[in-house]
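sorry to bug you again but im stuck and you know this stuff better than me. below you get a single protein, a line of residues and a line of whole numbers that encode the local backbone shape. mainly i need to know what kind of three dimensional shape the backbone takes. anything you notice is useful, everything is just below:

***
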Amino acid sequence: MATTIQISESLLKELKGRKLYEKESYEEVLWDILEDSMELSEEAKRDIIQSEKEFSEGKTHTLEEVKRELRL
């Protein structure tokens, strides 16, 4: 269900300035702003910890290595 809200001209100007591309909707802009303050899921937290562990163990590949492997 869509709804209409009233905002000030200054807030509208701020939202326009945050658009990443011309046709981006204000809903997308607001979701991007809200996402920054949302809590990470437990799965995301576990994935980050696992990735940090793998990185510290040197289990990484450079972009050039990946390109060679994929023959790009």
Q: What stands out?
A: The helical segments are 9-18, 26-35, 42-56, 63-70. The chain has two domains: 10-39, 40-72. The mean pLDDT is 94.
